[in-house]
Amino acid sequence: MKPHHHQDHPLKELNILPKTQRSSVLTLSVTLILITIACLYFSLPTPFSIPSPPPVDTKCDVFTGEWIPDPNAMYYTNNTCSAIHEHQNCMKYGRPDTDFLRWWWKPKGCNLPRFDPEEFLSVVRGKSIAFIGDSVGRNQMQSLICLLSKTVSPNLIAETKIRDQTHSTWYYPTSNFTLSNFWSPFLLIASEANPTSPSPIGLFHIHLDHPDPAWTAHLSRFDYLIFSAGHWFFRPLMLYNTTTTTTTISCSNCKDNNITHISVYDAYRLAFRSTFSALKGFKGTAFLRTFSPSHFEGGVWDNGGDCVRTRPFKAEEGRLEWFQGEMYRAQVEELRAAAERESGGVRFGLLDVTAAMSMRPDGHPGRYGRPKNETKYNDCVHWCLPGPVDVWNGFLLHLLKVEEARIVVRSAISDAVRLRGTICG
Ligand SMILES: *[C@@H]1O[C@H](CO)[C@@H](O)[C@H](O)[C@H]1NC(C)=O
Ligand SMILES: *[C@@H]1O[C@H](CO)[C@@H](O)[C@H](O)[C@H]1NC(C)=O
Ligand SMILES: *[C@@H]1O[C@H](CO)[C@@H](O)[C@H](O)[C@H]1NC(C)=O
Ligand SMILES: *[C@@H]1O[C@H](CO)[C@@H](O)[C@H](O)[C@H]1NC(C)=O
Ligand SMILES: *[C@@H]1O[C@H](CO)[C@@H](O)[C@H](O)[C@H]1NC(C)=O
């Protein structure tokens, strides 16, 4: 696998979604100003107050930048937050260094504000968010709970098992905000061929044409969905596509020569295509949280690979491995295609963590995701809590504010149009 300099990545120009949003905010703002001027021209007393959008730098491309030292950046610890998953509780398991906690993300030419729990809780008042995907998605949800725990801790209102993984729903009564996670590592109906096999990477059967009802059945309860998937796709997969008349089978990473082989990237691409087309009729916003790079060095994940660095890469050292760039390309192209197909209804957004996290080889649990006496693989996939994954929720807050700004401007316009009809007209 060749290292690939992420700055040259051909998909950099794909950060187009925020720009689209920007121009619509601009258009709407201009319209609003014109309408207001039209009203004032008739010298009427100000008939209504224009709600001011929450302050957000909608022009900021938050996802391109670098990590800068931030000596005060420790927001919580393993003692102040009880939501940290055992395997990401690096402090508890004796990670000796803490410098990796003291960085924040600096977008080029603008700033990503520190995560402000009060502000987050006000932006999501009356709203609900679902994290849909694998354990790295849960990693982000637990980071969010920990970041908010500085202000308030949620009530666990429901807990069920989805295929032996916990699906939890949390509720924040003071802001009427609901947070859930749905375990669905392939986002589609999937089953392990031989669940009792001792191999940690057994074959999975994946139904490309069937998004997982574990999450599709609950969409209407949510305003925001955050989709993610990644490392499970590197397993051997048997992929089925059933129509009324035929079933076609393909596979990736499999040994069966009688079956059409497709690449991991194509399997990943088809999974997102199918996932995004399952959102017809959903009225909220669906974010794609992009591929989260792992950082095994000195070996592969199950054969000596480890991640022992203690500081981030600088922007110029940044490296996204070629295969990780292909995963990113596949999912972002599918997001763009889905957003272009969509007319009304669901809105799509990009939570683009890939470049930022490619620079954080120091943020993984490594050998500190388990008790010392347990010999297991080093975890260079998930992220320590607290840790750089906390910045994902800074990105999320930014995106939610951009969304809110659009909604506020839009409702101000419909108010203005309605009032102009009665007062100015
Ligand atoms: C937090 O980590 C420290 C070691 O840094 C450990 O002594 C303590 O027991 C941990 N607390 C919890 C609640 O696990
Ligand atoms: C909480 O939010 C939901 C969804 O927006 C809304 O239907 C409900 O009335 C709200 N409840 C309270 C107590 O504000
Ligand atoms: C499944 O097969 C149908 C018919 O050949 C095709 O139109 C569709 O794109 C395929 N879906 C996937 C996810 O491959
Ligand atoms: C592949 O197909 C051939 C001919 O149909 C058959 O003899 C062989 O057993 C098949 N191999 C596998 C691995 O299924
Ligand atoms: C590791 O040590 C803990 C605490 O002493 C003990 O409870 C646990 O069973 C041990 N695990 C193994 C795999 O030896």
Protein architecture, described:
- There is one protein chain.
- With 425 residues, this protein is of the alpha/beta class.
- The protein has one domain: 3-Layer(aba) Sandwich (Rossmann fold), CATH 3.40.50.
- Helix content is 29%, strand content 20%.
- The protein contains 8 helices and 16 strands.
- The strands form 4 sheets. It has a 7-stranded mixed sheet with strand order 5-6-7-4-10-14-16, with helices on both faces. The chain has a 5-stranded mixed sheet with strand order 8-9-11-12-13. The chain has a two-stranded antiparallel ribbon with strand order 1-15.
- The structure holds 2-acetamido-2-deoxy-beta-D-glucopyranose (5 copies).
Topology diagram in text:
Blueprint: E1 3-4, H1 16-41, E2 65-69, E3 103-107, H2 117-123, E4 128-133, H3 135-148, E5 155-162, E6 165-172, E7 177-183, E8 188-192, E9 204-211, H4 213-216, E10 224-227, E11 237-242, E12 247-252, E13 260-261, H5 264-277, E14 285-289, E15 320-321, H6 322-341, E16 347-351, H7 354-358, H8 390-424
Parallel strand pairs: 4-7, 4-10, 9-11, 10-14, 12-13, 14-16
Antiparallel strand pairs: 1-15, 2-3, 5-6, 6-7, 8-9, 11-12
One 2-acetamido-2-deoxy-beta-D-glucopyranose binds at residues 208-209, 241, 243, 270, 274.
CA gyration radius, whole angstroms: 23 Å
What small-molecule ligands were found? 2-acetamido-2-deoxy-beta-D-glucopyranose
What would you give as the CATH superfamily? SGNH hydrolase
Strand content: 15-25%
Number of strands: 16
Distance from N terminus to C terminus (CA atoms, Å) equals: 67 Å
Q: What is the oligomeric state here? A: single chain
The DSSP helix count reads 8
Based on the structure given, which CATH architecture is correct? 3-Layer(aba) Sandwich
Helix/strand order: EHEEHEHEEEEEHEEEEHEEHEHH
How many domains? The number is: 1
Structural class: alpha/beta
Per the principal axes of the C-alpha atoms, what is the gross shape?
globular
What is the CATH fold-level name?
A: Rossmann fold
> What is the class in the CATH system?
Alpha Beta
What is the strand arrangement across the widest sheet?
5-6-7-4-10-14-16
**Low-pLDDT residue intervals, each spanning 5 or more residues:** 1-28, 30-53, 419-425
In round numbers, the mean pLDDT is 84
